[in-house]
Design brief:
The chain is an all-alpha fold and 236 residues long. The chain has one domain: Four Helix Bundle (Hemerythrin (Met), subunit A), CATH 1.20.120. 63% of the residues lie in helices and 0% in strands. Helix 2 runs parallel beside helix 7 and helix 3 runs antiparallel to helix 4. The longest helix has 31 residues. InterPro entries: B561A, Cyt_b561/ferric_Rdtase_TM. This is Cytochrome B561. Keywords: Electron transport, Membrane, Transmembrane, Transmembrane helix, Transport.
Length: 236
């Protein structure tokens, strides 16, 4: 058992020691929490929990729990990412090819986060029977809303991919302990498996139907859902 633990404690390269600047170490910890925990969980909440288990949909509509989870995980993850950037801003680093790729992917993730936050703020009005005014970008599925959904979903998937790449490069670049690399890899594999199981279970329900139901009288139900693998039920 001790031999296995000793092997896990070694850096990826097999070196006898592992040294890293304190600021860089905290940068890595914060970024793992931001990019590997909070942001992916926010994506899972938005994609698979628009209708909660036991909600009784479509009799019970517009459950906002998924929205709150998505909002706070994405905003919190973005702020944690900003803190991670500030921790290493101005640090002198060896400009190896790995370091350059890590920095590029990292800045692109932060750019994606900014685009997501701004686009979410500018997503337009809601409308529909639960609002004082029926006319709204979302309920009517205006061109503004369609553009928002296409951009928001595309950038979200891109940010996840870039975050994974930046994380893998980062732990390789600092020659992280093997237990850390294996733990992060296992976590991402678990996220993938959970997403796959929820997708196969039909949990990816169209946002429009989750809010207003499948009735064909709602204008948004007359067009195809936006995004891949989105489930839409036929109206009565």
């Amino acid at each position: 058992m001790a031999e296995h633990w000793d092997w896990l404690r070694l850096p990826l390269s097999g070196s006898d020691e592992h040294r890293i600047d304190v600021r860089a170490a905290w940068h890595g910890r914060v970024m793992v929490v931001s990019w590997s925990v909070m942001l992916p969980l926010g994506v899972l909440a938005a994609r698979y929990f628009k209708v909660m288990p036991g909600q009784g949909w479509p009799a019970v509509l517009d459950n906002k729990r998924w929205w709150r989870m998505h909002l706070w995980l994405q905003v919190g993850g973005s702020l944690a990412g900003l803190l991670g950037v500030l921790l290493v801003l101005g640090m002198a680093t060896r400009q190896t090819a790995l370091a350059q790729w890590h920095a590029l992917c990292g800045w692109l993730v932060m750019l994606c986060a900014c685009v997501q936050l701004v686009s979410g703020f500018l997503r337009g009005s809601k409308g529909g029977p639960t609002c004082e005014q029926w006319q709204g970008d979302h309920y009517q599925m205006t061109s503004h809303r369609v553009r928002f959904e296409r951009l928001h979903k595309s950038i979200g998937w891109l940010a996840l991919l870039l975050a994974l790449i930046a994380t893998l490069i980062g732990i390789t670049m600092v020659d992280a302990p093997r237990w850390m690399a294996l733990s992060i890899a296992a976590w991402w594999a678990a996220l993938f498996m959970v997403g796959l199981l929820l997708q196969r279970a039909g949990r990816c329900i169209d946002t429009y139907q989750a809010i207003w139901g499948p009735a064909p009288t709602h204008p948004g139900n007359r067009r195809r859902p936006i995004g891949w693998g989105v489930r839409r039920l036929p109206g009565d």
